[in-house]
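Hi support team,

I've been running sequence recovery on a batch of backbones for a student project. Most finish fine, but this one hangs at about 90% for roughly twenty minutes before it completes. I'm not sure whether the input is malformed or the queue is just slow. I've pasted the structure tokens below so you can try to reproduce it. Let me know if you need the job ID as well.

Thanks,
M.K.
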């Protein structure tokens, strides 16, 4: 009886949280929606307009490229740094944890001004992406990746694992590649998906640092806010669907890997 009560409460909460999302998606498919509870009609007109707009396609490509490149750089830099610090310099982790809180404590406008000072003389691009925005997106992803990896490490006996691998003839690098990383997969996957979603939806840094010079999806959405609400709802709905698909693929890939490991 208690379990049913819990399921009922969770179901009510999920329904309550999903109403705005479902309303946005339904509005994007409606031809018009006035004083009635349900739309007057359904149409794909807004999606046709969206996909026929070259600016939208280019901004979507830029946002995906920017988010993926930023996430990959963040993972490559952050994961080894945390593992090395946890094994060799445990006290340094406290400093890293403090740094991971700075993006939440310092307003984005202040961080943007600081980044402009740091990168003002650099005109470097990576895959056509200005390096200044990569630095900003690194600071956005850093807290989430740090927390995901740190939580995974807290459940491991790091010293014992590395020593065991060394006794069996492996190096510290072997321990990192074949023992530690596989045990951190859940934390990396969850923090990676969360970071990707946040980076795709990030507007403040992109608008302050690069603006229209490298138009991302959110800058495009901001420029189109005066247009039909159906049109913007269609774009937001695509964002929801994309995040759902990415999450679904990541979860199922993890299940497939687990099945192969059992075999």
């Amino acid at each position: 009886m208690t379990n049913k009560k819990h399921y009922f409460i969770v179901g009510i909460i999920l329904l309550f949280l999903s109403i705005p999302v479902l309303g946005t998606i339904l509005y994007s498919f409606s031809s018009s929606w006035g004083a009635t509870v349900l739309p007057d009609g359904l149409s794909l007109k807004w999606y046709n307009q969206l996909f026929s707009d070259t600016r939208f396609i280019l901004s979507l490509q830029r946002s995906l490229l920017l988010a993926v490149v930023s996430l990959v750089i963040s993972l490559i830099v952050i994961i080894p740094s945390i593992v090395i610090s946890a094994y060799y310099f445990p006290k340094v982790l406290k400093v890293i944890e403090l740094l991971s809180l700075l993006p939440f404590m310092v307003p984005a406008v202040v961080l943007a001004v600081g980044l402009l000072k740091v990168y003002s003389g650099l005109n470097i691009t990576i895959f056509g992406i200005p390096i200044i925005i990569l630095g900003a997106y690194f600071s956005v992803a850093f807290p989430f990746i740090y927390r995901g990896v740190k939580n995974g490490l807290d459940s491991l006996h790091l010293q014992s694992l590395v020593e065991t691998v060394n006794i069996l003839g492996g190096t510290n690098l072997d321990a990192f590649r074949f023992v530690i990383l596989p045990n951190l997969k859940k934390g990396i996957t969850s923090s990676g998906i969360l970071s990707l979603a946040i980076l795709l939806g990030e507007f403040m840094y992109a608008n302050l640092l690069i603006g229209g010079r490298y138009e991302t999806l959110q800058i495009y959405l901001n420029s189109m806010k005066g247009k039909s609400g159906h049109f913007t709802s269609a774009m937001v709905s695509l964002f929801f669907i994309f995040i759902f698909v990415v999450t679904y693929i990541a979860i199922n890939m993890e299940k497939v890997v687990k099945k192969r490991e059992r075999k």
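--
Follow-up from support: It reproduced on our side and the slowdown came from queue contention, not your input. The domain at 59-260 is CATH 1.10.3720.10 (MetI-like fold). No action needed from you.
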